[in-house]
Design goal:
With about 525 residues, the chain is mainly α. The chain has helices at about 10, 30-50, 60-70, 85-90, 100-115, 120-125, 150-160, 165-180, 185-195, 195-200, 210-230, 230-245, 255-265, 270-290, 305-315, 325-335, 340-350, 355-370, 390-395, 400-415, 420-435, 450-460, 470-485, and strands spanning about 375, 380.
């Protein structure tokens, strides 16, 4: 007698909801093809942005930093972000672009001592002019041959390399939703992700936001798999992506409380092995990211102690200076302010060389700069941020149909008993709780890591009653329309709740709307 193979929905095991009221899915080809078509559309839409836009403000130092990491083995530039994404982008630079220019050498030296000078160095590296054109006025039309490097070509290649990260994220979303809700659930989740203008825009930029979202989602996905089947491959991938999240962006450190809470929720002793492996792998991966060298540079050490002192001085004095703490006040208070637990941990790790100097200095610098940054919301400016900032950006920057799908899925999730439920909800709760207490309100991109979990949850809508599937298909189609309307301009996407792109500047600015991407239009 011929043995019937099990379908994915049958193989999910206890604690999961089958795709369609318990009926196994026998033909997964259609949902897989739909997900694949959506992914192809994502790439085409992202390429439209790459071709039409200039490098954004943060892309300049990111790619320049990645180049200095690979060429010079020097990790001092752009310390506020770990090196993974920047190194990946710089792999696309196949030629030696360091040109013989006094301006470049001076800009390089300045960028080491003055963090904001990294933009000057990056501009000189990519847009440096040959001597005969060095002093030409900005009003004069300059031929391409006047530049040492072809910056447009360099950034186009780097941006195309970045597309590997959203493609990885799309696979994780489809696989996770498909494993929990069935193939059609995976198609729904993958489609909503693929036509999200925010991921289309930022997935094609040399920045860290989509990269850390991909690594965090993959880490939690494989942690969930470990909680059910702690196989060697699940443990290895959980460990790998946990480590990669830590060197993608410092917000990846939020995986630590997520993992701790999910372990307590799972109450599975076997998970201790997986978490122990992930911790060990993370340490190795962080060291590997900095070339297994403690010093950020063969030259002088980074002033970690001073930056930690400044970090807590800025934190202590922020109430006295609503518009930002003056540097002079920080210097006066530097030696008298008590250091908190996290700061002491950084100094302890630095004293014992437990982690690379570049990583610890970058973490301290990120914290030091996070307490007073000017932000804008609904016509008002603030140096202290807005507690509701990211709630507004969610409703302004997410396609309306996707918002409806997410809300319906969250409501429906209350009645479901899937083992994935805490692994999907806790990361959202923790990430949003931390984000809403932060003064760093400079872009919706900072909460992109919650979206993979939200989109996986939307996959549950397909397993509802058959008559409701028409609504799900309609929502997916409506969610896709804005991505085509904003062809080549996805970064400035604003939905109708925000008044559309013509009124968006009244609600949000910075990387939400204008990040310098239109300079060459």
């Amino acid at each position: 007698m011929r043995k019937r193979s099990r379908s994915p929905s049958e193989a999910r095991g206890a604690g999961s909801q089958p795709a369609a009221a318990g009926r196994p899915e026998s033909r997964p080809y259609a949902p897989i093809l739909i997900a694949l078509a959506s992914l192809i559309a994502f790439v085409v839409l992202a390429l439209s942005d790459i071709d039409a836009t200039s490098p954004t403000s943060d892309e300049l130092p990111h790619l320049a930093a990645g180049y200095t990491y690979l060429k010079l083995g020097d990790y001092r530039l752009n310390s506020e972000h770990p090196p993974l994404i920047k190194k990946l982008a710089a792999l696309s630079i196949r030629d030696d672009i360091w040109h013989p220019s006094t301006r470049l050498e001076n800009a390089w030296r300045d960028s080491i001592d003055v963090p904001n000078a990294q933009w000057t160095f990056a501009h000189e590296l990519f847009y440096g002019r040959r001597p005969e054109y060095a002093d030409a006025p900005t009003t004069q039309r300059i031929p391409r041959a006047a530049f040492f490097n072809d910056a447009d070509a360099l950034y186009a290649r780097a941006r195309k390399t970045m597309l590997l990260l959203p493609l990885l994220l799309a696979i994780v979303i489809f696989a996770w939703a498909g494993e929990v809700w069935g193939w059609w659930g995976g198609a729904v989740a993958g489609t909503l992700f693929a036509f999200d203008p925010n991921f289309i825009a930022h997935g094609a930029l040399v920045t860290t936001d989509v990269g850390v979202a991909a690594m965090m989602a993959a880490a939690i996905y494989f942690m969930w798999r470990c909680s059910r089947r702690p196989t060697a491959i699940n443990i290895a991938l959980f460990s790998l992506f946990t480590g990669l999240a830590m060197i993608a962006k410092f917000s990846g450190l939020l995986l630590m409380p997520m993992i701790a809470i999910l372990f307590l929720h799972a109450r599975n002793r076997k998970m201790l092995i997986a978490i122990g492996c992930a911790a060990a792998a993370t340490v190795v991966i962080v060291w590997a990211a900095y070339g297994f060298r403690y010093r950020a540079s063969p030259e002088r050490a980074r002033p970690i102690v001073m930056v930690v002192n400044d970090w807590y001085a800025a934190r202590m004095l922020r109430d006295q200076y609503p518009e930002g703490v003056p540097e002079a006040a920080i210097q006066r208070a530097r030696s008298t302010i008590p250091i908190g637990m996290l700061g002491r941990t950084v100094l302890f790790a630095n004293d014992l060389h437990l982690l690379p100097e570049g990583y610890l200095y970058g973490l301290a610098l990120t914290e030091r700069n996070s307490y007073a940054r000017w932000s804008f919301l609904n016509g008002e400016g603030s140096y202290r941020g807005f507690p509701t900032y990211f709630l507004y950006t969610f409703f302004y920057k997410t396609p309306e149909a996707a918002i409806v799908a997410i809300i319906l899925a969250l409501i429906a999730l209350r009645k479901r008993g899937s083992s994935a439920k805490p692994f999907l909800l806790w990361p959202i709760v923790i990430y949003m709780a931390v984000s809403m207490t932060s003064s760093l309100n400079i872009g919706h991109r900072h909460i992109l890591p919650i979206y993979p979990f939200l989109y996986v949850i939307t996959g549950s809508l397909w397993s509802a009653a058959r008559w409701r599937r028409f609504l799900v298909v309609t929502l997916c189609v409506l969610a896709a329309i804005p991505s085509f309307y904003f062809w080549g301009s996805h970064l400035s996407y604003m939905n109708l709740i925000a008044g559309g792109p013509s009124r968006g500047y009244e609600k949000l600015i910075d990387s939400n709307f204008d990040w310098g991407q239109d300079l060459k239009r």
